[in-house]
Amino acid sequence: MRTVTVGTRGSTLALSQTRWVVERLKEQWPETEFRIQTITTKGDKNRASLQSMAKAGDKGFWIKEIQDALLAKSIDIAVHSLKDLPTEQTEGLDIASIPKRADARDVLVGAEGFKSLADLPQGARIGTSSVRRRAFLKAFRPDLQVIPVRGNIETRMAAVASDDYDAVILAGAGLIRTDQRHRADEFVSTDILLPAPGQGALALEVRADDDLIAEVAYAINDAVTDDRITAEREFLAGLGAGCLAPVGAFATVKGDLLTLEGWVGAVDGSEVIKATTSGDASECADLGAELAEDMLSQGAQRLIEMAKED
Ligand SMILES: NCc1[nH]cc(CCC(=O)O)c1CC(=O)O
């Protein structure tokens, strides 16, 4: 029986979510052998300059080396955090499968006694390097001080134990997938922090001409997650924005009805443009594109440009 090589980054989160994927794949393909290969990316090597790479338009800093390994056939399937994957599809590659999404919300991890965003003391110091979180946090509570905290989940969790932060904000899915759900003090309501497009979801990327591998990956596709993510990413693409923009998007599905909410914020929280649309889930891509147009006509472009100059 052939062996399928699954590639990912070497971080705790990347490995945990790839093990999760491989377990699901094994259930579907018990005769196939899967092995995991870790790959170092530019983002792993050079965290300090992430923001400058983003400004230079280098969107693929978490994934470029992994995509190269796919194209070179040293791996067969790449597992990515969907929110890190640029909206433009890479030549020669396809997203073959989007497994069931974990909780998309951001979580608050507080220092001793700090258990919810609403109850934090005046002027509390919140760690996050995401412009989206900064914009929406400042809009919710202008008194909060938002302080950058870079690094992987471990580094950001350690920041709470230091005296420099009262709380940090992370993607809940990161804690869930590394068996640390209990460390989340609050799953922040999407009325306060709208998640990043694709947050909490994974993407299985394959070579576009490898039908056999695509079929292997597709066995764990989740149709509802797929529709939600398609709407959110079309919205992001329609805005002409990337994963480092102050943009939130969150789609939900009830029966055949998909509802998509989008926010674009000023980095200082002085303004947040919000809009919602809904329609048949089969129209998910059009719903995303329409919402982007709606928000561009309301001035979203100016806020996105403002964040790049920040
Ligand atoms: N940008 C880094 C990144 N990419 C995916 C996740 C978390 C898992 C996910 O959203 O699927 C994180 C960390 C974070 O935002 O806290």
Describe this structure in words.
With 310 residues, the protein is of the alpha/beta class. It is built from eleven helices and 13 strands. The chain has a five-stranded mixed beta sheet, sandwiched between helices. A five-stranded mixed beta sheet has the order 7-6-8-5-9, sandwiched between helices. Strands 11-12-13 form a three-stranded antiparallel beta sheet. The longest helix is centred in the N-terminal third of the chain and has 17 residues. The structure holds ligand PBG. The ligand NCc1[nH]cc(CCC(=O)O)c1CC(=O)O binds next to strand 8 and helix 7. Belongs to the HMBS family. It is an enzyme of class 2 (transferase). One of its GO terms (cellular component) is cytoplasm. Tetrapolymerization of the monopyrrole PBG into the hydroxymethylbilane pre-uroporphyrinogen in several discrete steps.
Which descriptors apply to this entry?
310 residues; Double Stranded RNA Binding Domain; Porphobilinogen_deaminase_C; 11 helices; Porphobilinogen deaminase; alpha/beta; Porphobilin_deaminase_N; porphyrin biosynthesis; hydroxymethylbilane synthase activity; binds ligand PBG; D-Maltodextrin-Binding Protein, domain 2
What is shown here, in short?
This protein is an alpha/beta fold and 310 residues long.
